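Tutorial, part two.
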Amino acid sequence: MKAYSIHNLRKSFNGRSILDVDCLEIEAGRIYGLLGPNGAGKTTLLNILGFLDQPTSGRFDFLGKAVQFHEKDLLPLRKEVVVLDQYPVLFTTSVYKNLEFGLKLRKVERAERERVIDEVLDLVDMTSFKHSPAHNLSGGETQRIALARALALSPKVFLCDEPTASVDVENQAAIVALLKQINENKNISIVFTTHDRLLAAGLAHHTLVLNEGRLVSTSYENTFPCRIEPENDKQIRCRITEETGILLSSTKVKSPVAKSRLFIDPEKIDLHTGEGMQGGGNCLQGKILQLMEESGRVRVVVTVGFLLTVLLTREKYDSLRPGIGDTVVVSIVEDAVTLSN
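Running the prediction step on this input gives:
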């Protein structure tokens, strides 16, 4: 079953288009990562999915039924979806009272409230904090209690806005593990926004990318701002970092610009392992950080001074057998590179 099925969704504000989504289908029981730059429309889309905002136009189905964006129709739907903010707010009372509040509103009996609260606190490994003052919790502890509070309401969908952005590395790992466990054990659909491509690749079953309000190819993750520098009469260097750049023919630049955006097609990048690897030119040495099978291909994330995604055919992967942590060389042919202003 599809949790959401959306067609021709538009959201405008003061005459300006914020979202323009032709088609989006989110399968129930799966995890979706929503990537994109600031201002791309990620939070707006999350709020619409959570029935906290409404589209200007378009067809919107939830769990197989068409949604009418009228207040009386939205109230029951909001009970099926929980939006988890990047900076969750807890009442200045005990952890227990924070978790009990939503259950009381739903008129859950006291004994059942106690059972549910104990269960969700155990799931997020926060049982010992049951009677602690919520306002004294750390950022990571607050996020985990927010997850427990959401779980207590037995939603069908979690919508998480930057779930690991405001916590330390240790709690980031704990929250990622919790989201996986919640999805697997409770079959709750999860959509989360992030700027972290590694997090999206490691947690999500599917990755969505928004840019200027539109869903775009996940190849967006190989798009980088760059500085154009003349190398010689016939070549330019597109500098992505101070240490790393891509050498191209000067004919790639249509007009004199100092700054541009560079896209590297992940399917046209070659990857080399083993003896005889050499850098230089557009051959960059790095280490593999992530491997993920995707629709018959293998997505390889390599750090080469920046994060670069390479898509290998299954045959290529089987011949190379690269592993996480391996040192490799990526070869970027000029045909793989596109420049835009």
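Residues 86 and 163 are 6 Å apart (CA to CA). In part three we will examine how such features are distributed along the chain.
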